[in-house]
Design goal:
By secondary structure, this protein is an all-alpha fold. It has helices spanning 7-10, 40-52, 56-69, 74-89, 93-106, 113-125, 136-151, 158-185, 189-202, 209-223, 226-239, 244-256. The longest helix is centred in the middle third of the chain and has 28 residues, at 158-185.
């Protein structure tokens, strides 16, 4: 997805007339970046022009130049976040995250701080892979969006952040389930049960919880602890009484631990 610039930043267009530039800076502080002194109005206007035309890499470089050449101006602060946004639009997520974090470090109380947190979260969010791969970036996205909702629960970005956090939790739970099923297929019941328990304890509001409870029942029966299996089946029956997962768990209890069977319909 693509996010709009915060309204406060979209209005920050200088009245200065942009003049042709001798060349564009390529990146902050790199040896191949020519330093050509320009007034702040010319630089900012040129950067905004590149952004509006979808030339995001050039826009990011020019916003960086605003900060480099005029570090103590009010436009440097604005350019810092606009540069991060430009990197995000160019799918250069590492630079976007770095720029937004630098903005927060220098201007933690700025009115655009919620947007900076949101930009960090989305930069991680858009790098999420499927559940068969490592999920560190999913956790990073969840942490970043969680920071936004904790600090600015009433901000314009909090509602979307919460929605994405629900999707991220479901995604992370799916990864735990995939690993748990992998262990289960190989008869590694203890390792499997730990994964399923993680889903039940840490991701209990996700769509994976009923299956996790059924597989916990299955794993505990295989481990020879029918009392624990009965507890898992009871929770499943109480919360998902009409599900196929509960029916399967009930059948397992009847077959392998009849003395512990949970009454149907609990």
């Amino acid at each position: 997805m693509r996010i709009p610039m915060p309204r406060a930043l979209t209005l920050l267009t200088l009245a200065a007339v942009a003049v042709p530039l001798a060349g564009c800076a390529t990146s902050r502080g790199r040896p191949d970046t020519p330093y050509v002194a320009r007034d702040v109005g010319t630089l900012y206007s040129a950067a905004k022009d590149r952004l509006d035309r979808g030339r995001y890499k050039q826009a990011a470089a020019l916003f960086d130049e605003v900060e480099r050449q005029h570090p103590y101006s009010i436009w440097a602060r604005r350019a810092q976040l606009m540069g991060a946004f430009s990197y995000y639009m160019n799918r250069d997520y590492a630079e976007a995250i770095q720029g937004a974090r630098r903005f927060l470090a220098v201007h933690p109380g700025n009115r655009d701080a919620p947007y900076a947190y949101y930009l960090i979260g989305l930069s991680y969010y858009e790098q999420i892979s499927d559940v068969t791969r490592d999920q560190k970036v999913s956790q990073d996205a969840l942490d970043a969006l969680g920071e936004l909702t904790r600090r600015y629960p009433q901000s314009a970005y909090a509602s979307d952040a919460r929605l994405k956090m629900d999707l991220l939790r479901d995604h992370l739970a799916g990864k735990e389930m995939e690993i748990g099923r992998f262990y289960e297929e190989r008869g590694q019941w203890l390792a499997a049960s730990m994964r399923f328990r993680t889903v039940v304890e840490n991701y209990q509001t996700t769509s994976h919880t009923p299956e996790a409870l059924m597989r916990l029942t299955e794993s505990y029966l295989a481990l020879g602890v029918p009392e624990e299996a009965q507890k898992a089946a009871a929770v499943l029956g109480a919360n998902y009484p009409g599900s196929d997962w509960y029916e399967h768990a009930y059948e397992l209890m009847q077959k392998y631990a009849p003395d512990q069977v949970v009454a149907s319909g609990n």
